[in-house]
Amino acid sequence: MNNKIQIAEKSFWVGKVDDRPVPFHRLILEKGTTYNSYLLETEKPTLIDTVDISFGVEFVKKLSENFDLNTLKYVVINHVEPDHAGALPALMSKAKNAVIVTTEKAKEFLNGMFKLHNREYLIIKDGDTLDIGGKTLKFFQVPYLHTEETMITYSIEDKVLYPCDIFSTHIATYKLFNDLASEDITEDFKVYYSLIMASHRPYVREMLHKLKDIEINIIAPAHGFILRNNAKKFIDLYDKMSLKNASNKKALILYTSMTGNTGKIANDIYEGLTDSGIEARIINAKTSSIDVVKEMAAESDIIVIGSSTRYGDMIGNIEAYIKEIVSMDLSSKYGFAFGSYGWSGEAIEIINDYLKQSNINLLDSTKIIKATGENDLHLPLRINFYDNAKKVTSVNTGKMAAEFIV
Is residue 291 exposed (0-12), middle (13-18) or buried (19+ Cβ within 10 Å)? Predict the structure, then answer.
């Protein structure tokens, strides 16, 4: 196969086709995959992403046969997982003058993985542009698609989107372009979405919003086919697949608060749930009855329980409510504990222990990481005191919880 295939003016595919059954995210990709890397031979030559770490030496050798690596000005890293950034150490050992273009979080990860502390970085923010001499690249931060440091790159003059894992397919193809495929790739495209992107649905929606006013003629992802025929079809598929119907889904937020901070967290979680289309109800245990709360719990798909901590324990009468709730059949429901605390926060853990003893589907950090890879949200939700800066965490926790039932 030609090591260098043109996809737009002065823009070339320089990746690697891996036609083995490929281990990937606890799966075996029976159709293999491609690791797509792109070289833009402009006045300031730029490489967008690399290939899997297993092929780093081979990648650099083949790239140097077609291109003088000493002239490489920029290396754009959209996403730091080893199947995209893995060849970076081998590349940078030869491309002595290249600057790494990426996000601040990606820089942190790259330095941690590959010890590139002595290399020059150009840190981008959402919406930044970069003139590479004949082309202008625009960058969009798209966290959690599918890891927190991810960004995507758009070539303004070519109208080519380089979205890394987004819009990918896991197929080893020597034909590269979707209009040359021997069969319809739509099903493979949908399978990739369901395996990699579906659990990040809110972030898919945010990404689509950022792209809504951009004209895209070609989508050049990090895996599988380059979508040069009817790119809009595949954007529309993401739009359709990321729309979920939350109608008739209900949530109960039961709490008790000493100084009002836990009540503020309850309101934030309510905001996150309702923003996701969930009908949420907040109940203060001080002003309701056990019978009413049990009725609401029976009707709810998510049950969220919180308390402030005083003398190492919950406050008020909420424990009596919890005992009644956990004695119910909660097998079809999800739940988690939350609360504000000053110096210890035992009440939150006590609530969590009660939920563990029930048959509820307990949302905790382990479940979140396995489902989404997200490391910023931790459950049970423990907020030390409270301020407006912590509001985002509480709201996002509500949104995350909604994703498990819609």
Answer: exposed
Q: Which residues of the chain have pLDDT under 50?
A: none
Domain 5-241 listed as CATH 3.60.15.10 = yes
Question: What's the one-letter identity of residue 340?
Answer: S
**Extents of the domains making up the chain:** 5-241, 250-403
Is residue 399 within 8 A of residue 278, CB to CB? The reply is no
Model pLDDT, residue 406: 76
pLDDT attached to residue 147: 86
Q: What is the pTM of this model?
A: 0.79
Instruction: Determine whether 224 is exposed, middle or buried from the number of CB atoms within 10 Å of its CB (0-12, 13-18, 19+).
Output: buried
Asked whether the beta carbons of 358 and 352 are under 8 A apart, the reply is no
For residue 157, the model assigns a pLDDT of 97
Would strands 381-384 and 46-48 be described as parallel, antiparallel, or unpaired?
Answer: unpaired
CATH topology of domain 250-403: Rossmann fold (3.40.50)
10 Å Cβ neighbour count for 312? 11
Q: What is the pLDDT of residue 202?
A: 84
- Report the pLDDT value the prediction gives residue 111, as an integer from 0 to 100: 95
Token couple for 134? 């004949």
CB 169 within 8 A of CB 192: yes
List pLDDT tens digits, range 307-361: 999 999 999 999 999 999 999 999 999 999 999 999 889 999 999 999 999 999 9
